[in-house]
Amino acid sequence: MSTVARLTIAQYEKMIDSGVFDQERRIELIRGELREMSPLGIPHEYSVDVLATWSHDNTPRDRVWVRIQNSIALDQIGTVPQPDIVWLALGDYSSRRPRPADVLLIIEVSDSSLAYDRDEKASLYAQAAIQDYWIVNIPDRCVEVRRRPIDTVYQNVRVYGEHESVRPLRLPELSFPVSVLFGT
Which domains, from first to last, does the chain contain? Predict the structure, then answer.
């Protein structure tokens, strides 16, 4: 596939503001390219719901803002992804998209998008110096945790199985049991 034109984030914002995009389509700006996102399946939606509930119930409201399937801006690489879950440092995001310095944790839930989330998304988040990136791997019923980004690669990758719990890097007092993600 070839790219006809690359957009800046400012151009993308103008297109959104002018109503260019169909509201029914899920689109991200990745390295200046408009990309259609995969449709959400039932296991994906369930895992996002579980993570959203757990995040809202367990993060300290005076320190963490939880976003569900909303965008962040990776200005240096012309990217506006829409991760499934983002924990942000508390702040005013009413007139700007959160930036990498605001991000405490990103979680992508992956079924059909697993290769993309492991490769391109991981590379983008590492390049933006996102310190804690989790992939909920639905096919293998585990959580892959990526940390210590250098350039475009995470140096530390650990897989947590169904009988383990994961602790967020910035809030290690919290413990998320992987088993609750996959139902019965």
Answer: 39-181 (3.90.1570.10)
